[in-house]
Every structure is written in structure tokens, then in C-alpha cells.
Write a structure and sequence with these properties.
By secondary structure, the chain is of the alpha+beta class. The chain has two domains: about 40 residues; about 50 residues, SH3 type barrels. The chain has one helix and five strands. Strands 4-3-2-1-5 form a five-stranded antiparallel β-sheet.
Length: about 100
Amino acid sequence: MDSQTMSSFVMMGLIFAIMYFLLIRPQQKKMKEHKAMVEALRRGDQVVTQGGLIGKVVKVKENNEIDVEIAEGVKVRVVQSTIVQVMSKTEPAEG
């Protein structure tokens, strides 16, 4: 290998390293935080969905679904991963 080929490989490696630290790693961290937030959802939490609906978690179901009350007596079934923000958390029951 000549020096030009070697420097080309080094440049490609540097570009990949920069892309990893600027794009891939922060996105993985964000996904990990979102997953932890969704898994910590419980009854009484006030949440915002991707569609912009604000409501209160009424029931956390199996198969990644939750029931959210968006108005008095109006409940919708929502996929947990579509929750983008928890506005207020309820304290866990002691006992």
C-alpha cells in the first residue's frame, strides 16, 4: 500500500468516528431515555401523545397499550411508544 491509499483509509475512519459521535450516539441515548420514560408510565400520569393529545393515563395494559382519558368520560387506547412527554408524574403508592 502506498501512502495515498493509507491516508484515504485514515480519513474514512475519521469521518466515520465523527459521524458516530455527532449523530448515532446521541440518537441511541435519546431512544434509551424515551424507552425508560415509556416503561415508567403508570396510572394518573399526565401525558402528551405524538398527535398532540393531552390526557391522563387511566390504565396501563399489556401488549404496549395504555388507556388515556382525554376528557371526562372519554378514553382512548394509545400505543405506549407514541407518548412523547410526561407532563406530571404521580407518586408511587406506598405499602
